[in-house]
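Narrative of activities, Objective 1.

The group set out to show that a structural description can be obtained from nothing but a protein's sequence at a throughput compatible with the screening campaign. Below is one input-output pair from the validation batch, recorded exactly as produced.
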Amino acid sequence: MRGSGGPPPRRLVEALSRPGIALALVAGLGAVSAAYAAYGLDLPLRTDYLAMLTGASLLAHGGCLYCHAAQVHAQASLLGTPRLGFDPFLETPVVALAYRPLLGLPLTAGFAVFLALSAGCVGVSARLLHRRPGFPGGPAGASLLALTLLSLPAAWNYHLGQVDAVLVLPLTAGALALRARRPLTGGLLLSCLLLKPQTVWLVPVALLFARNWRAVAGMILGAALWACASLALAGVAGVGRWLDLLGTQGPPVDTSIGIPGAVASIGGSVSGFVAALVLGLVAAGWLWRHGGALRARPGVAVGLGVGLSLLLAPHVYAYDLIALVIPLTVLGERRLASALACALLVNASHLVDTLFIISGPHVEALALLVTVLVMARELAAPREDAEPRPERAAAPPPRPPAEVETGWREAPDRASS
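Output recorded for this entry:
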């Protein structure tokens, strides 16, 4: 029977190119995200949404944004009791400002507005990526989007009230702007991700060695704007207290799912930070060596930058992995089977970590490493080495010479009909 033979990668693409299988996958992942969202909506003050409202409340009432005692008092007021623990606000002052409008709503209604905004940003991102020339269409392309934007790790955004699902829209728009030869706009949009620096801290390095000066300038300009906004909201002393609070109240490195987290689980937090620094320098050296190949491929530069950032940052958590949508969709244009396999591996590793790993190195670190290695191998290869379509239709009749010369020159869709 057709599709029953061939190598496993080809069989994977053929399976996910079947509408029934793709629909079941999308529906299943969507149901998981909806369940996570419902749990967060039922108990919004038992999630990170409480920490966000704590920062918003202090900012609204002129309190000391990063003073421990002020945060404890503000959080006790939100909870109605000081006996339910403490979840510190550790985000930038701009995040507190973004959550401030939700203070005027009932808790459940405010969380519902946040969920609607997150869903809207994810939906628009999916639409933009699906319409991009060269993106694999059909059920296989929809499966790839679902495995990234609606992945099991990404579902934690809807349960915890994290902003990564909102930030995926400027990430997507920025990457597409770079590919559309609008580097300054792309850099400005990508700078929005500096609110979650663990997702993009190596992106400016990749763009720098790719000699995309205007994109780097856009990110620097955006970073300067965020810094000025933070100083205006919290003051110089407030920013200093924020850095101190990150050191004393921030999550330990060994809970991170990247390589530094695995190192820290064995050798302690200091070894995790050292690993992040050393491996970051190694990654920068690799990007410098391949800067010439990346120069004409801004989408590849951003994809590798995001993948390396997630792999090597000392504080990366499951909800941050929604950012993998950029590297995996870029990879999917050249190697759809590899992109689908990596996306499935990330989801499977998260399931293993959730069910079986209480402490120690996370399997997700291995999945991230495999994903980055596949990206580095495939995306640095010559474009002519791209895989053929899963199923090639019969050759069309010859076209007039003018049509051949003006036709689309990018790689064709990889999805089967």
